[in-house]
Design goal:
Blueprint (H helix, E strand, L loop, with lengths): L4 E9 L6 E6 L2 E5 L8 H14 L6 E5 L5 E7 L3 H10 L1
Length: 91
């Protein structure tokens, strides 16, 4: 049986005071990361923050679009959309 795959739409604000899941922003999740958007640091910080909030290994997450944009799509393997949303709401 194949593991579930979920795509998360994100609106990311880099260079913040701290990393946090702010909440829903329309269809996307608003996320702040402390890392600056230089040499992929903010993207790496985003994936670490999501892995922690979702309680999954970082290897289950991959950035599929928006590498140099604030609007990003992250693919999550092994967790359904409803469970991912529930975990992000608690974060």
């Amino acid at each position: 049986m194949a593991e579930p795959t979920t795509r998360l739409r994100l609106k990311v604000s880099p260079g913040g005071v701290r990393g946090e899941i702010v909440g829903r922003h329309g269809e996307a999740w608003k996320v702040r990361v402390a890392a600056a958007p230089e040499r992929g640091r903010a993207n790496a910080a985003l994936l670490r923050l999501l892995a922690s909030a979702l309680r999954v290994p970082a290897a289950k997450l991959s950035l599929v679009s928006g590498h140099s944009s604030r609007d990003k799509v992250v693919e999550l393997r092994g967790l359904g959309a409803a469970e991912a949303a529930r975990r992000l709401e608690k974060a």
